[in-house]
Amino acid sequence: MKKRANFLFIEKQDDVYTVSMTPELQDDIGTVGFVEFVDEDNVKKDDPILNLEASKTVLEAYSPLTGKIVERNDKAVSEPALLNSAKTEENWLIKLSDVDEAEFNQLEDA
Amino acid sequence: MLNQEDRLDYLIRYLLEEKPNGQELAQSELNSMDEKFELFRGLCNVREAKLVSDEFIETQDAFLTEWNHDRKITRLDDLQPVQSQIYLWKGDITTLAVDAIVNAANSRLLGCTQANHDCIDNIIHTRAGVQLRLACDEIMTEQGRMEAAGKAKITDAYNLPSSYVIHTVGPFIDQRGISPIKEQLLASCYSSCLKLADEQGLGTIAFSCIATGEFNFPKKRAAEIAIQTVKEYLSKYKSKLNVIFNVFSEEDQLIYENLLVNE
């Protein structure tokens, strides 16, 4: 199941929720040149999860859900333009666990 | 005691001597105060955030204090609210003696670096003095990355009549126009500044029209977002902040009047 919030996609697979870039966000910010994830693992909804410096804007992205960050797309740190890719396996940002499923279900369908 | 022209001469000489090719520039004849002031402003605008002597600061502060206060200074008491806690005022934001004025910054947050550029970031930094760039540089060095759009940082206002400057970076609008993301970023600019002002215990904040200058955000839509965000914030958090919408152009004044007064 795929949802959207805070201009990001969230895809649920078992108990892991993968947060990735939406095409609108990609279009708006332009080519990504710098990515920095927050160090904090436990995030609340709307807490910052990463900072992006792109050709058209500098942006802080906010977590669409409360949960625990179990994985970050570290490859994007060394190769930021991956976040401009159309493929989720390249443009994903973080994976969350310990998410309240009801909170996820309430989000807008993608 | 030095007069304004003596001070300007000193400041220009100091700034030129900092530059590698400064001596050549120093040869050019400047006669009027206006010419001297233009050169001083331009030199400050392009000056990097680096240490400056105490004597420079002292002379600059004396010059700017006199220059900034040699105009009509406006306080909250001089204004009438158009709605509860909300004010509309047309004029130069650098003449406002309120707790905080909001600067439309860019993501480097160091002030406009284009000599004598006619933007609000430039005039705020010029009239505040070179200390403002140094203060911003300190914040940015500590942060270690560029400033994201929609956030807010606060500094002293140095030689300005206001107490503080709150710096926020608006969304940049290109030829494709506005989008929901950019609208939300603009709203975030206003809510982040208000939140920061409340955290600092300020009483009055004056907003310039964020993102509508160099960043091309359509003026009417920007005003709608600004007003809506401010009203929602004040009521949601029961904030006691007084909010001044500062407009500079006739066009912006009409837009805000229509939205605030004639609604």
From TrEMBL, chain A:
Domain of life: Bacteria
One cellular component term from this protein's GO annotations in UniProt: glycine cleavage complex
The entry's keywords: Lipoyl
One of the protein's GO biological processes: glycine decarboxylation via glycine cleavage system
InterPro entries: GCV_H (IPR002930), GCV_H/Fam206 (IPR033753), Single_hybrid_motif (IPR011053)
PANTHER family the UniProt entry points to: GLYCINE CLEAVAGE SYSTEM H PROTEIN (PTHR11715), GLYCINE CLEAVAGE SYSTEM H PROTEIN-RELATED (PTHR11715:SF3)
Name used for this protein in its record: Glycine cleavage system protein H
Native source organism of the sequence: Allobacillus salarius
UniProtKB/TrEMBL annotation, chain B:
SUPFAM superfamilies reported in the protein's UniProt record: Macro domain-like
Gene3D superfamilies according to UniProt: Leucine Aminopeptidase, subunit E, domain 1
Record-level Gene Ontology MF annotations: hydrolase activity
Signal sequence, renumbered to the chain: none
All copies of domain Macro, residue ranges: 73-263
Pfam families: Macro (PF01661)
Alphabetical keyword list: Hydrolase
Cited NCBIfam families: PRK04143.1
Protein name as it appears in the record: Protein-ADP-ribose hydrolase
Annotated source species: Allobacillus saliphilus
